[in-house]
Amino acid sequence: MTTSSSIPATAPAPTRSLLRTHRGFQLLLTGDTVSQFGSQVTTLALPLVALSTFHASAFQMGLLTAASTVPVAIAGLPAGAWVDRMRRRPVLVATDLLRFALLASIPLAYAFGELTLAQLYAVAVLAGTATVFFDVAHLSYLPFLVGRDRLTEGNAVLQSANRCAYFSSPAICGWLVQAVGPVGALLVDAVSFLASAGSIGAIRRSEPQPEHEPRGTLRQQIAVGLRYVFHDAVLRMLVSSGVLLCLATTALLAVQPILLVRDLKLSPGLYGLLLAGQSLGGFLGSLTARSVIRRLGTARTIWVPSVAVVPFVLLMPFTGHGWLVLLYPVGAFAFAVGISIRNVAQLTYRQNSCPPELLGRMNASMRVLTWGAMPLGGLLGGALAQWGGTRAAMWAVFALIVLSLLPVLTPALRAARD
């Protein structure tokens, strides 16, 4: 297991940008951004394949969303224990290569007339499992690569680049779907994971083998990570809030193509363009996160931006025909700004406060406890749209977003600066 000496406490020339001075961070940034672009294309293109090829129902769309997120609940905790035993960079490369193979299987099966809805579900589950390992390893690798004193900068830059990918990918995916179809877009998606593997594989900084194996059985090792999370007051609040927020966001993922593409009859290109507004909000939020954290402190940044954007999120359930369609990107833009700023603050808190030998299990525990709600959110969104209508589903999403703020509005956190 890595010890505190395995993660550098300081980095040279802390006033100089990581982007200019740190070759390993540059490669990690490139690989992570390309991988995030691929993940966004998967999120957008897989439902469109189901709609266009199999005319999937709203409930089947919810099942597809759930299939891509259920691996978090199943594989998340074991992934954290295994990652704590391994070098993290090989895990990142291997999971990118696996996602390349899985996504490439869809256009291959389609070319031979063998593609089925069951294969889409299977790819969603397996690619989601690979993403669980990638995310846990990525969050645990950054403190080693840049040092703990550069984590706020590193997280902010990664969030900015990822949000830039989120901003560009919906529009690009929409254009790709119109040009080559949703199946062809998935082929481009597969290649993006191959490019990410090449970039991360080129990092030359030597990563030490974990010095000690975690003690006890796998179950005991997992329990250590869970106890750490539940014994930390801030992490407990983040878990409670994150569960509700994940329910809301995954329900929204299931509902938004039904609302915008099926009900409002938007073209794939316009659909992608509207979703780009949400991604742009996340990008701008991550750009301002460092200055917000400096002004408010980490604790207040966890809740203030999220509260500030609630009035704008209220616009989304009123989305309709004509100019009313613009209410969706406005609300989604504001929502993404608040969540992106909050993410930089809570990621930095988690990585700075956790002992290095527990990073993998802590990150995995946080992912499982919060993202474990995502499959239920996908099913909830699909079921509400199927039996209650898309408007009722959108109001349910808004209610969950508001409820997610309550756990982080405790007096202790509101009074704290850091």
Automatic annotation (TrEMBL):
It comes from the Bacteria. It is a multi-pass membrane protein. Its main location: membrane. The chain crosses the membrane at residues 58-79, 91-112, 118-142, 237-258, 270-289, 301-320, 326-345, 366-387, 393-413. Keywords: Cell membrane, Membrane, Transmembrane, Transmembrane helix, Transport. The keyword ATP-binding does not apply. Residues 234-418 form the Major facilitator superfamily (MFS) profile domain. InterPro entries: MFS_dom, MFS_trans_sf, TM_effector. CDD domains: MFS_MefA_like. It is found in: Cell membrane. This is MFS transporter.
